[in-house]
Amino acid sequence: MEDFRFQNSTDIRFGKHHIDEELHDAVAQFGQNVLLTYGGGSIKKSGLYDRVMKALAGLHVVELSGIAPNPKIDSIREGQKLAKDHDIDVVLSVGGGSVLDASKVIASAKFYDGDAWDLVADRGSQSRANIDQLPVVDILTLSATGSEMNAGSVISNPELNVKLGTYGPKTPAVSFLDPQLTYSVSKWQTAAGSFDIFSHLTEQYFDRSTANDVTAGIIEGMMRSVIKWAPIAIKEPDNYDARANLMWGATMALNGIARSGNANGWTVHPIEHELSAYYDITHGVGLGILTPRWMKRALSAETEGKFVRFGREVWHLTGDNDHEIAEKAIQATYDWIKSLDIPMTLGGVDINTDEKFVEMAQEAVRIGHLDQGGGYVNLTVDDIVALYQASSTVEGFE
Amino acid sequence: MEDFRFQNSTDIRFGKHHIDEELHDAVAQFGQNVLLTYGGGSIKKSGLYDRVMKALAGLHVVELSGIAPNPKIDSIREGQKLAKDHDIDVVLSVGGGSVLDASKVIASAKFYDGDAWDLVADRGSQSRANIDQLPVVDILTLSATGSEMNAGSVISNPELNVKLGTYGPKTPAVSFLDPQLTYSVSKWQTAAGSFDIFSHLTEQYFDRSTANDVTAGIIEGMMRSVIKWAPIAIKEPDNYDARANLMWGATMALNGIARSGNANGWTVHPIEHELSAYYDITHGVGLGILTPRWMKRALSAETEGKFVRFGREVWHLTGDNDHEIAEKAIQATYDWIKSLDIPMTLGGVDINTDEKFVEMAQEAVRIGHLDQGGGYVNLTVDDIVALYQASSTVEGFE
C-alpha cells in the first residue's frame, strides 16, 4: 500500500428531506451575495428553480445560466465577472457535474485578475492553490461525475480543442443529494452517467500498487452496486432505490476514498477526453465504448491477477482457469455496457472517420503521460490509435 | 436507503513517511500549549516518545500518562485539570483507541466546569455539543477502534460498573497512521483489534434498511480484507501490507461511511460492554466470543437474505441452498475467529460464573434499547442471558 493523505470536508445531505428545510442556512452561513449557476431551462420546467428561489428569499441572488455539458471556458469567464462585480460570497450550483465543475473554477476565478483559462491550463493548479476560493453549495441533478465531493473540474476550450482537468483546493462545502431530482434524467444520460461512475471505479481499481485490499474491496462493492442498479434506473426512472444507489455510488466513487493507498494512473479518461474535445460526444458514452477495448489491451500475464479478481469479486465468475476468467470478465463488462443501450462503436456516436486518430492519440499521450508510467499499463501513440480503431468495430466482442 | 448526513473532516496522514516531517506543524497550527496523552511506558521503550518530543521541540508540552485500556473517568478528570491549568491549545494523543477516546473527552472537558463524568453520562452528548472542544492530533499505535476518524469515545466508570459511549462534536483534527507502529502489537491484541474491526462492520452490515448496495458492498470488501490480513499479521507481525490493511480497515470501518444510508442498531457492542464493565476483559475478545452466538440468534426467515449475501460475498460460499449458506457463513465466521486464537468461550477469559448474567443483560437492554428496535433484531433480557449462556460452551459450533 502506498503512503497517502486523505481529507474531505464536504458536508453531504443525502435523501428526500433536506433541501427545503436546510438550503437557506447552508447557503447563508457564507454570506448574502449568492451566484446561482445552472444549465438550460430544465430546472425551471421541473419546479426546482422555484423551490431554490423560495429557499433563498432575502438573499441577494445573481444568476448565471446556460452552462453547457462539457462546460466551456466562456461560462467561467462570465461567472468570474459576475463574482467580482457583485462581490459574491458563495456559489450555489444547481445541476449536474458540468454546472458544478464550472462553479468550482468560478469560485477560484473571483480571486484571479487574469484570463480564467490560465487557472485551467496550469495543470498543476498551482495558480489556484495560491489564491482563495469561494465556498460552493450544490444541488445535484445527475449521478455521474462525483464533482459533488471532490476538488476537480474538467473544462473545455473549444478554440484550442482542449479539455483539461483542474483542481481547486476546496471540495464543495455542502452537497445536497436528492435522488428524486434524477427521476427525470433520460435513459441516455442515465446510461452515460452510470458508466461514468463505473469508469471512475475501473480507473482506480486497475492500479499499480499491490496488496491494497481495503480499497480494492470497497471498489468491488461499489462496482456491483452500479452493475445492479443502472439497468433498473433505465427501465424504471422513478425507482428510488436505483437512483439512490447510483447517486451515492457516484459520490463515493470519486471523493478520494477509492484511490487511498493506490498508485493510480488514469488511462481511459485522457483517451476519451480527446473524443469529447474533438467531437463533443457524451463523456460517459465515450468511456463505455473505449473501456472494454482498453481492458483487452491491458490484460497480460503481468496484469492477469487483477483481472481475475475483477471477474471473481465483481462478476461472480467461478472456475479454475484464470485466463478464461479474466477474458470472461472483460466480455461481461462489454455485455453490461451494451445492455445499457450505449452504442458500442465510435460510429454509433457519429465518429465515422479516422482522420483525427493520430492527433488525438498524441494529445492523450502528452496530457496523460501515458507512455511514461502515467497509466496502469504504458500506451504509445500507436497503441491509442489502435484503441480508437478497435472502437470502430464490434470485432472481438460480438 | 435512508436519508443521512455525512461529514468528516479528519486529515489522514497514512504511511511510513509523515510523522517526523509533519508532526510539528500539524500540532503547532493550533497553538503552543500541548497536552501529550499516552498509556503505559510502551511508547518510551519503542522510541516513539523520543521522536515525538523531538518533533515538538519549542512547544510547551504537558504530559498525561497512564491512560488504561477501557479508559477510566479518572484519567479524564486528571486531563481536564491539566487542560485548564495550562491553558492547553491542542491535545496530542499517542497510543491506541483508549488513549484517543480519553483525549477526545478531555478536549471537551477543558470547557466544562463540572465533573467530567457528566459529559459521559449524558448519552445524547448535548452537554458536549453545547461547549467547545480542543483539536486532537493523534499518532495511532493500534488498529482497532476507529477512534482516529470519528467523534466517539467509550469511557468506563469503575465505581458505577458502567461503560458508556459519548460523542464530541469533533472528529480528530489530524490522524497519523503509520502501520509500522503496530509491528510490536502482541498476537492477542492484534487478534482482539482485528475482531473489533470486523465487529464494527457486522454491526453496520446487519441493518434494517433495504437496498443500500453501495454501503453493503463497501462493507463486504472491508470484511474480506480483515479476514485475509488478520491471520497474516498475527503470524508475521512485521508484515507491512497486513498491518497497513488492518490499520486503514479499522479507520474506514468506523468513520461514518459504513453506516451511510443504513438504519443501524448496534447489538453486540452493548452486550459486550457489560462484560468489559463487569470483568474488564479485552473488548475485541468479548465481541469475538459473542458475535457468532448473536448471529445464530439473529438468523430467521426474515433475516436469511442478508446472511446469505454475507455468505456469498464475504465467504465466497456457493450453492443453491440458501439456508445452508446462511448457516455456513456463521460457522465460517466462528472458525475464522477461532483461528485468530481468540478463546471461544467466556470461560476462556475467566468468566466462570453466571451470577451477573441477568444484571448485565438488563443493563445491555436498557442502554442499547435492545428490546425496542434498538438493534438489528429485538432482544429481551432473557434472550441476552441465553446469549451469555451459549457463550459459555462451544456447543453448536464444535
UniProtKB/TrEMBL annotation, chains A, B:
Pfam name, any one: ADH_Fe_C
Organism lineage string: Bacteria, Bacillati, Bacillota, Bacilli, Lactobacillales
Annotated InterPro entries: ADH_Fe/GldA (IPR001670), ADH_Fe_C (IPR056798), ADH_Fe_CS (IPR018211), BDH-like (IPR044731)
GO molecular function list: alcohol dehydrogenase (NADP+) activity; butanol dehydrogenase (NAD+) activity; metal ion binding; methylglyoxal reductase (NADPH) (acetol producing) activity
Organism per entry: Weissella paramesenteroides ATCC 33313
Alphabetical keyword list: Oxidoreductase
Entry's EC annotation: 1.1.1.1
Positions of the Alcohol dehydrogenase iron-type/glycerol dehydrogenase GldA domain: 10-179
Annotated ranges, domain Fe-containing alcohol dehydrogenase-like C-terminal: 190-391
UniProt xrefs under PROSITE patterns: ADH_IRON_2 (PS00060)
Protein known as: Alcohol dehydrogenase, iron-dependent
GO CC aspect terms: cytosol
Name of the gene this protein is made from: adh3
